[in-house]
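Handout, tutorial session.
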Amino acid sequence: MTDITNTSAGAEPGSFLVAALYHFARFEGFADFREPLQTLCDETGVKGTLLLAREGINGTIAGTDAAIASVLSFIRARPEFAHLEHKESRASKMPFLRMKVRLKKEIVTMGVEDIDPNRIVGTYVDPKDWNALISDPETILIDTRNDYETAIGIFKGAVDPQTKTFREFPDWVRNNSGLHNKPKIAMYCTGGIRCEKATAFMKEQGFDEVYHLKGGILKYLEEVPEEESLWEGACFVFDERVSVTHGLKEGDHKLCHACREPLTPEHRASPLFEEGVCCPNCYDTRTEADRDRYRQRQKQIALAKKRGEKHLGS
């Protein structure tokens, strides 16, 4: 395996660089790109998930600074992704267990045919201008993420659709006629990709002034000082860090490995919490047989940790 060390002048010793990226483009050769991309990631020690589809690329990866730079350069060498942008943050330990490059029908699944952000999309708003837009009384602010994400953090005054999956979002819009009561719709998500499709869908539904936060919550938390921020709580991220806060610092949430819900320190102090087995969110929805099975898995995780190994089922 290629030894790529962390050579960035700003890198903390032992830290990993996390790169979140997506780009919508007509990518007819996506299937042929999977194997060379997977090979490069494996050779450089990069881990995470990258999704490839005819509509582009999406994912989050982590590794040394040099390894991430190598993978990003390889992706940008494709003419379809020459202008790909990414967002960076840090992790104190590797936040992924393995590397997966997957072929998909969509790089973010909305389930609505012919939604193309390259053809129609909302107006991008930079983080520095976001507070003014969402503070305007003529604006309806919508969080396009799912309920387990909004449970730990949300912009002040935002409407929470309480969706379980992004597939539910189009029906939520169709069933809420009150969204037409104000002229401006502002939308946001973790890194910006869901809003690309969400704003495209809203425009096709007849909404005129549709805006979305450029770079998503992650870019806002990176650039907007905490004392000026209208963000409340933490931002859920899809890796072992679970959440980040202002300045993209690692949050104090952990995942329940039974239900995959994010847990606060208060959740973990509950008598209904048992590491790897149950939490207050799922205790009443699991049987004792389920919990016994989870306990056996947790024992295997503990044994692997004692051997200095990573249990892939953890």
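The second record follows below. Compare its token runs with those of the first.
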Amino acid sequence: MANLKETSFWEEGIYQWETSDPVLGGENGIDNVPTRQLANRTKWLKDNKLDKSATAANAELAKRANTADRLSEARKVGGVAFDGSADIDLPGVNRLGNQDTTGNANTASRLKIARTINGVPFDGSADINATPAGAVQYFAMASAPVGWLKANGAAVSRTLYANLFAALGTRFGAGDGKTTFNLPDLRGEFLRGWDDGRGLDSKRIFSSVQPDAVQNWTAGFTYQRATIKYGYEPLEGGFRFKEISEIGLGHPLDYPAGWSVGFGVLGPGINNIARTANETRPHNIALLACIKI
């Protein structure tokens, strides 16, 4: 067994047990509430040498529980528990909480002065979502943080993630058509701003996927009276001769250089070395795309 923690505080009222109250011990258990309240009164009277003239002032202080240093019931801010006793860090937002830490009550239901977290007012009386459902963030880790889901095209519950379903609907897939819906699948994708009537990417439907492509182009050239050596010489820049046909004076083995007329086939090459793949892409880095629930 442990001793009750006494606080020098005049309790204005003493809680009465009800027949419906559960049997619950511990520091904050209902069975210890009236005992602790009486102990607090006793300590207050001892500390004030039975000076009842301060009773009214302390009773008023008891009413001002909204100046607490923490809340009796922690609230969630962007999915992170927050009771006003310490700063918090919201995943993908990285702004610290700004709460009132004056006062000495531990049973407050709200903060004395409402604070804003990412512009959203918060006084501790209700949960808030500082980042709107449907926001997309990239993270340098392999798993989604609290309050986020991987943007991997998965089918998720319409009721469990009601806020996200209200934001997305079935735009990225209807799931089973009844109880689930699909998240956007951003794995391996580059993002492109929606054209929204500008005309650079016309006739593009919002949230649609676009395959990779290379703009069509052609190139041709002729040359004559070029000095051709045995084998071939590279051209300057991003191309080189891939094949050589030459008509000249004598055989190249006998005449390593001479006047000739011929044609060439262009092939890719930067310094005669080409990086090839099954797609066209810029230099890039892979991070985890997540969506706010």
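Points raised in discussion: The two ends are 44 Å apart (CA to CA).
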